[in-house]
Write a structure and sequence with these properties.
alpha+beta; 26% helix; 2 helices; Aldehyde Oxidoreductase, domain 3; 3-stranded antiparallel sheet
């Protein structure tokens, strides 16, 4: 088992994430099923993920990857870097609650 942080190649603000690509990266590490008969390895995956709007530099990781071995970690690191889009400017904040329904 290997747990290491993955860092962005550049500085910036997290402006978008391809969450499907992140999920498929976990599946490729064995943390999900491609078909019903596949077994799940509950020890692999991502923790400490950045969030939209977070500032990222060489000191703050995009995520911590928990992988079976170095090869799986490298593959997952490429997927994380490709799935998280950075921008020079912080994105506009959006409200957590869009609207309340009362009736």
């Amino acid at each position: 088992m290997l747990s290491k942080a993955v860092y962005a190649d550049t500085e910036g603000f997290v402006s978008a994430m391809d969450t499907r690509a992140l999920g498929m990266a976990v599946v490729s590490m064995g943390g999900g099923r491609r078909q019903a008969s596949d077994t799940i390895d509950y020890s692999v995956g991502f923790t400490d993920m950045v969030r939209l709007g977070d500032s990222v530099d060489g000191q703050r990781p995009l995520a911590v990857i928990h992988a079976k071995d170095e090869a799986n970690w490298q593959e997952a690191a490429k997927a994380v870097k490709a799935a998280i889009i950075l921008d020079d400017k912080a994105p506009a904040s959006t409200p957590s609650v869009y609207r309340r329904i009362t009736e």
